[in-house]
Automatic annotation (TrEMBL):
<keyword id="KW-1133">Transmembrane helix</keyword>
<feature type="transmembrane region" description="Helical">
    <location>
        <begin position="390"/>
        <end position="415"/>
    </location>
</feature>
<protein>
    <recommendedName>
        <fullName>Ion channel protein</fullName>
    </recommendedName>
</protein>
<feature type="transmembrane region" description="Helical">
    <location>
        <begin position="318"/>
        <end position="337"/>
    </location>
</feature>
<feature type="transmembrane region" description="Helical">
    <location>
        <begin position="163"/>
        <end position="192"/>
    </location>
</feature>
<keyword id="KW-0812">Transmembrane</keyword>
<feature type="transmembrane region" description="Helical">
    <location>
        <begin position="115"/>
        <end position="134"/>
    </location>
</feature>
<dbReference type="Pfam" id="PF00654">
    <property type="entry name" value="Voltage_CLC"/>
</dbReference>
<dbReference type="InterPro" id="IPR001807">
    <property type="entry name" value="ClC"/>
</dbReference>
<feature type="transmembrane region" description="Helical">
    <location>
        <begin position="344"/>
        <end position="362"/>
    </location>
</feature>
<feature type="transmembrane region" description="Helical">
    <location>
        <begin position="26"/>
        <end position="51"/>
    </location>
</feature>
<feature type="region of interest" description="Disordered">
    <location>
        <begin position="1"/>
        <end position="21"/>
    </location>
</feature>
<dbReference type="InterPro" id="IPR050368">
    <property type="entry name" value="ClC-type_chloride_channel"/>
</dbReference>
<feature type="transmembrane region" description="Helical">
    <location>
        <begin position="242"/>
        <end position="264"/>
    </location>
</feature>
<dbReference type="InterPro" id="IPR014743">
    <property type="entry name" value="Cl-channel_core"/>
</dbReference>
<keyword id="KW-0472">Membrane</keyword>
<feature type="transmembrane region" description="Helical">
    <location>
        <begin position="71"/>
        <end position="94"/>
    </location>
</feature>
Length: 433
């Protein structure tokens, strides 16, 4: 007779609990993701509105009061030089000096100390209002990541730190572009290469919620729009394929010229040995470039690009080419002399100018196709983000019929840029690859 099994000891370990289902694991992340996304959008909105108010004072009220032309060459040189001096003095005075050298930072980096954030946001407002050719994306994303990481680790210490970085980045990017798709595309390239539990969309769930919250907050309050009022594209046609390949490749080459000039310009400004002097000199160069290229080549470029697109036949091919070159040069100078700012929006302006140049040279090339392909090529070279470059190029024209040609144009452009130097330096001043 088989003996009875002994009764379980009171000290015997409990049987292991089954792992939580993905839904039960992801659902608690929804609320913090939404909160982070909304706060990120509000910070971006606050900085943008403050910069716009200061811009009106600096470029309208002040020159009118002095009897100086708002965008005269003299005023552009004076204003940009003064902006460089002001930013340099603020960076010298604020805690943390605005964070690391902006030439060494990307769009999504490790969290900085929260004490650096106020000074970083202040110099960002000054640069945006003063006409510097940089966008708000890098410093706003860095500030939001710092705040989200600090608060998240304080109130939810059990959550991984990487979660707060992803939520803040997604919320900010969603607000910047007015759609969570941009955030999902940017983060997907990083998440796809990282090991982690669950399916890919499990890892994307919380960032997508944050991006959605950020995008909806910005859309409901500010109604941002990236679409350009270009003539509708009627293709595709066989002849457009060659145009798309050539224009995207030309955009990539223009972007690569800026990429290879990046470390050279950084060495020149570093040789000045004093941030205030480097920023003042950089502001002077930016003012001279503005006088050369015209006032449309100033600022981050989002509003100015709509002026170009509103009259695609209003400038000659040479003028469009000149604005594209000046804008890329201004981007390189601004990002290497010490101004805090992003590189996506100025690159879009350069791409739009290059695309309209192609249309002006060959009238048969549809302006919508030319613009989208040129933006694609420039962004591929500057950001090395394939999905976001393709997305931005398509959004600019708002026509799904260009997508097949854009996908085809991505191939030669990517072959030109892959494996080459990036528009970001390491701590020794060498280009990343």
């Amino acid at each position: 007779m088989t003996p009875a099994s002994p009764a379980p000891s009171p000290t015997s370990p409990h049987p292991p609990q089954p792992p939580a289902t993905p839904a039960r694991r992801l659902l608690p992340l929804a609320v913090p993701a939404i909160v982070v996304g909304v706060v990120c959008a509000l910070i971006l909105l606050g900085v943008s509105l403050l910069a716009e108010q200061l811009q009106d004072v600096l470029w309208e009220s002040l020159p009118d009061a002095l009897g100086v032309g708002r965008f005269s060459s003299v005023w552009m040189v004076v204003m940009l030089t003064a902006t460089g001096l002001a930013v340099g003095l603020v960076l010298r005075a604020v805690p943390g000096h605005g964070g690391p050298d902006p030439a060494t930072t990307g769009l999504v980096d490790a969290p900085m100390r929260p004490g650096i954030v106020p000074g970083l946001l202040l110099v960002t407002v000054l640069a945006l209002a003063g006409g510097v050719s940089l966008g708000p994306e890098n410093p706003i994303t860095a500030a939001n990541i710092a705040l989200a990481f600090w608060l998240g680790r304080r109130f939810a210490p059990g959550a991984p730190g990487e979660l707060w970085v992803a939520l803040a980045a997604a919320g900010t990017i969603g607000a910047l572009f007015g759609t969570p798709v941009a955030a999902a595309l940017i983060l997907s390239e990083a998440l796809a290469s990282q090991p982690g539990p669950g399916a890919f969309w499990d890892r994307l769930f919380a960032p997508l919620a944050a991006g959605t919250a950020g995008a909806l907050t910005m859309s409901l309050i500010a109604e941002p729009s990236f679409g350009l009022s270009l003539p509708a594209y009627t293709g595709p046609h066989w002849g457009d394929l060659l145009s798309a390949l050539l224009i995207a490749s030309a955009g990539a080459l223009l972007g690569l010229l800026a990429v290879y000039a990046f470390p050279v310009a950084h060495r020149v400004f570093t040789a000045l040995r004093h941030p205030v002097l480097a920023l003042t000199a950089g502001g002077l160069v930016l003012g001279l470039l503005g006088a050369l290229g015209g006032h449309l080549t100033l600022f981050k470029g989002l509003d100015e690009v709509k002026t170009l697109a509103g009259d695609p036949d209003g400038w000659s091919a040479g003028e469009f080419a000149g604005m594209a070159i000046v804008k890329m040069a201004a981007l390189v100078i601004a990002a290497t002399c010490g101004f805090r700012g992003g590189r996506i929006f100025p690159s879009v302006f350069a791409g739009v100018s290059l695309g309209l140049c192609a249309h002006a040279l060959v009238d048969a090339v549809p302006p919508s196709l030319a613009v989208s392909c040129a933006v694609l090529g420039v962004l591929l070279a500057v950001t090395r983000q394939g999905w976001v470059s393709l997305f931005t190029a398509a959004v600019m024209v708002g026509d799904a019929s260009v997508l097949p040609l854009l996908c085809a144009a991505t191939l030669p452009a990517w072959l030109l840029v892959t494996g080459r130097a990036q528009m970001q330096l390491d701590t020794e001043g060498k280009s990343l690859r």
